[in-house]
Amino acid sequence: MKTIINYLTIIFLTGALWQCTPQNAAEETHGHDEHGAGHSDEHGDEEGNEHGDEHVGEEGEAMVILSDVQIASAGITTGTFDTMNVSGSVNANGVFDLPPDNIAAVNAPMAGIVRKANYLIGSYVKKGAELVVMEHPEFIKLQEEYLAVLSSLGYLEAEYKRQQTLDSANIAARKALQRAESEYRTARARKLSLEKQLDYIGLDPANVADGQMTSNISVKAPISGYISQLNVHKGEFVQSEQEMYELINTDHMHLELNVYENDIAGVKKGQSILFSVPSLGGERYQGEVFLVGKSFDMETKTVKVHGHFNDMKPQFRRGLYVEAAIFTGDERVTALPEDAVVRDEGKTYIFTREGHQEDHQGEGIPFRRVEVATGIRRNGMVRILRTNGLPADADIVVEGAYDIFAEMKKGEGGHGHAH
After folding, report:
1. Can you give the pTM of this predicted structure?
2. Are strands 237-238 and 243-248 parallel, antiparallel or unpaired?
3. How far apart are CA 274 and CA 149, in angstroms?
């Protein structure tokens, strides 16, 4: 009987101890780090979780090792935590444009025949480069007339001075003086006019005065820049003032955005702009409002907003369509690009690079899956509400996270669903 009582006592004490043990260490504590710890998102998660993933546990972590070849073929790149602006914003659209001084039309100074057209569309030329060589008999006639005026001007000047020395009281002498003065001044004016005309078509009057006559003229680039239009070819007869080339200098490319009348009141100089170019992909670029227009377009119901940006890309072209968000405030929170975040079975994950290949003796580079809590998505970025204790300088995969996720699923032999 005493033995039975002892067994019952042991069973009772064991049950009491089991009830006092926490069911899961992850349920007892929740990690709160510097990346949004203790903050809820008033906008909620787009995927339906109003406050993001509240519980971030170590069970979300897993490792996968990739070789250099796998990393290169997947285009995997890493970075650190970024920020995003969650303040109010105004949507806008527009195009890339250039200041008027950075666009130059190259016209034919006189009618003539094109003998050479030296550049194609897309070519870069420096100011003063020879674009077109033209030929026409009228070029010779203009030089000939200039030489004739120079020749007569010397005689007329001498005659004018001679008449000045004669007795001015003599009426006949006075008339001769007036006639000589008039002819001299007319010839001098004609000389100046012809010099301007020679300059205009690209000929140096001093060279012509030395007898260096030519039937050709060179049309040169007025600015440095790229050829954006070519409207002539060799042998073509072009009329005076006909446009042959267009040059653009992209040094001061800017945004010309259209903002609707209901939104323009909140737009001010200095506000941040986040814009993308749909034809070039989903990459986002930073800009700033430089000027807010004062006129209202009655047809489109918009106001022009002029924006500047520093991150100039070679693929940016004048006239390309742009979509933008103008932020009317500057409340910044921790965020990552949407491509850095993977969703699987209702949870969201990111991947961190855990070292370099030399640290792992040629066995490949390990990537760790870390469960995170996310908030709103905006302009290609997603807010990170909580992380699993990652430091601010963690080496995070920002491109290629889906490829790593797929490799991990292969290793598990499962069929996971990526966000």
Report:
1. 0.56
2. unpaired
3. 64
